[in-house]
Amino acid sequence: MHSTKHRRKVAPANGDANDNSADKQDQLHLSAAIYNGEDLGPFVRKAFTTGKPEILLHNLRHFVRSKESEIEEVCKAHYQDFILAVDDLRSLLSDVDSLKSSLSDSNSKLQSVAGPLLTYLDSYIEAQTVSHNVYLALTLIVSCIKLMELCSRANDHMSAGNLYMALRCVDAIETEFVDKAPSSTLKRMLEKKIPQLRSHIERKVSKDFGDWLVEIRVVSRNLGQLAIGQASAARQREEDLRIKQRQAEEQSRLNLRDCVYALQEEEDDDDDGVSGGMDDDAKSGYSNGGNSLLGFDLTPLYRAYHIHQTLGLEDRFKKYYFENRKLQLTSDFQVSSMTPFLESHQTFFAQIAGFFIVEDRVLRTGGGLISRMEVDNLWETAVSKMCSVLEDQFSRMQTANHLLLIKDYVSLLGVTLRRYGYIVDALLEVLSKHRDKYHELLLSDCRKQIAEALAADKFEQMLMKKEYEYSMNVLSFQIQMSDIVPAFPYVAPFSSTVPDCCRIVRSFIEDSVSYMSYGGQLDFFDVVKKYLDRLLSDVLDGALLKLINSSVHGVSQAMQVAANMVVLERACEFFFRHAAQLSGIPLRMAERSRRQFPLNNARDAAEEMLSGLLKQKVDGFMTLIENVNWMADEPVQNGNEYVNEVMIYLETLVSTAQQILPGNVLKRVLRDVLSHISEKIVGALVADSVKRFTVQAVMGVEIDVKILEAFADNQATLFPEGDASQLKTALGEARQLVNLLLSSHPENFLNPVIRERSYNLLDYRKVVTISEKLKDPADRLFGTFGSRGARPNPKKKSLDTLIKRLKDVS
Hints:
Keywords: Cytoplasm, Exocytosis, Transport. The protein is elongated. It has 810 residues and is mainly α. Helices cover 71% and strands 1% of the residues.
């Protein structure tokens, strides 16, 4: 084919060479603008502006005519090229016909050869389709077999109660077969049954869990009682060990080297609370959540928790568990108003203890079923409620023993739960807060018991026929006079009141220590000692004072009460030692803090009562002093009648009293009596009934005083060295008066040195009165004293001087 000619540009025709008008010029410009593709707007605007659009149209028509010739030339050139191309195609027509015949032959040969092959290919494709269908059928059959096996296995597990394994089978069916079910019917059946089965498993587990919630309440109560019982047994072993230790210390204190004591310390097998005493298998079962020995089985709980985890309902089950347990705890807080708290307190606290023992085990082995914060919140609620209940019940109680029983159980509860890490300080604070009320009630009880014991006293020495009676009434309070066991029957120097009161005080100490022990306060001896002082100083001392002032009417009764006071003084030393031992402090510290005898008032009152009754008896004999011949010319050689009667009574008194009263008490009583006799003798000389007396009468009184002094000297065997001389000093006033009246220089009484040394007990007013009554027939000291012209008597002169000087002082 020939190539086409390129389009050429046609320049605008130049008008007439000689035409120089404006229209020609405009035509040229318009042609150039059209040729160059410029905007013709300015030309159109100019034509209409000048009002000559005809010129523009003329120019445009002229341009069109110039272009038509050019177009004609181009068409002629292209037509020639088309003719040449047609000629070329006609020359190729023969070649195409030969090629067509060749292809037809080749096609016939190919179809004849490929016909059998296509038949074989169709057979192969059909066989392959059948094989694929068979393979697919076998695959579906295998899948159905596996599905049936899983379904059968799930049914078997459901029948056997293995809910978790059944749930695993259901999960496997859902994962592997639901989306690949061989039929839509089977798929619909699975989609319907699987949720039903899961729902059934959930209901079954929830029912088992509900049964466990009901059962665990009873189990918790038994578990709490068992755990608190083990804590009580451990405490009792500790107390037994302390008793043995105290016995060993006491033997060591008494230096009994021939007695050998061995303290055998028992191992505490209760380190894990309720797991004590189990074999390894039982402990292992307990750690895994079950203990058939205690009936403490967490398997239903953990099974339910595990299955809910598998169902994807873990959080919901945690919440459900916590809310139900919280409701159970709230119901455990209910205190029945129909049953006294004293009867129900053990069940109340044991239920709570068991609840938190279970929760501790669930916390440690439950795999996150409950958190530490939740358990702590439950415990804080429980502590608050228990404190409220204790406050309310303690405020109502009016019996010390009831408070002690509840306090002991609460302290055991604290010991039990402290092993599991629970904080029990608030409970112990409540117990400590009510210790004053407890001791006030205990003091009130002891006051009644002591009053009953004293009211039953017959003021008779106690008779003990057997050694166990001696041990129970004497040795147990360490009030024996000697370490040697006496022969039986044994008559004690005290009455039955003493051991009765000792038992009451000892019981008070033990109850006080029992309340203060295990209450969070380690050093409580000062508290026990404070209340023991109150018991002895206020209660016992007051009761004895009341007894002395109201019930003692005879010398024998007063003597018995005085003897009892001496024994009680030894018993008080035992009380403070016993309190120190029970409080766990060394005896030397208790000895350091010992105060004076707390029964001083009663002891002094008893001795005063005894002395007063003896003085009354002596006064009866001293009335015989009125029979003394004060104007006698010769002194009585064997003493006056009154002193002989007094001596008979005093000797009888001493022989009786020395069997009951210790020496120091007997010494004080005799000193008071002898001092009273001395006062009576001096009072008789001062009294108005004696108008005058002679020197011989004074000599007779001196003999009376010597008899009394001899009696005092004879008591030296009963008292320590020096005490007998103290008895003689009780007769000092009478002795000094007699010495003054019989002295050859009575005016020496005026010498301060001599008076302080020899007459310090005499009252100068009494000396004046008595001296004025002295009459000597020979010297006539008070009067003319002899005949006229006789030499004055120097003793008379000295006595006159004494009387005059003393009167001047008055």
